Amino acid sequence: MGLKQGEWKSWTAEGKLISILNYDAGVLQGIFQNYGEDGKLASTGFYKNGKLNGKHQKYGTDGHIETLQYKNGAVQNPKNKKTFAWFKKLFKKS
Questions:
Q1: Which of the chain's ends, N or C, has fewer CB atoms near its CB within 10 Å?
Q2: CA dist 88 to 62, 76, 82, 83, 92, Å?
Q3: CATH code at 34?
Q4: pTM of the model as a whole
C-alpha cells in the first residue's frame, strides 16, 4: 500500500547515518535514534502512534545528557508532584 513499515535508515549524501526510525503502517512507532554531523549519537527516544512518548535523551558534544519525559507528544513537567507530597504535608497550615 506504499506505507513505510519496519526500520528505516537515512544517510547524508556523503554516506553518514542520520537517523534510524521505526514505522508501523506509515506511522512512527517504537525506538528512534538521530545522529549528528560527526556521526555520534545525538538523541534517542520512543514514538507511540506518531507522537513522542516516554523518555527522550539528547546527547551533547561535551558528554552532557539532557533527558525529557514525553506523553502523547507533549513534554511532561520534570518535577514529580508525588516526590514532594511528604514535604508539603510537613508544612501544611493547621
A1: C
A2: 37, 21, 10, 10, 6
A3: 2.20.110.10
A4: 0.75
The three cell numbers locating residue 21: 526510525
Task: Give the separation between CA 61 and CA 82, rounded to whole angstroms.
Answer: 33
Mapping DSSP to helix (H, G, I), strand (E, B) and coil, where does residue 90 land? helix
Domain-located, residue 47:
yes
Per-residue pLDDT band for 93 (boundaries 50, 70, 90) equals low
Distance CA 36, CA 23 (A): 21
Summarised one tens digit per residue, pLDDT across range 67-92 is: 999 999 999 976 555 555 555 666 66
CA dist., res. 10 & res. 2, Å (int):
18
Q: Which domain holds residue 75?
A: 6-90
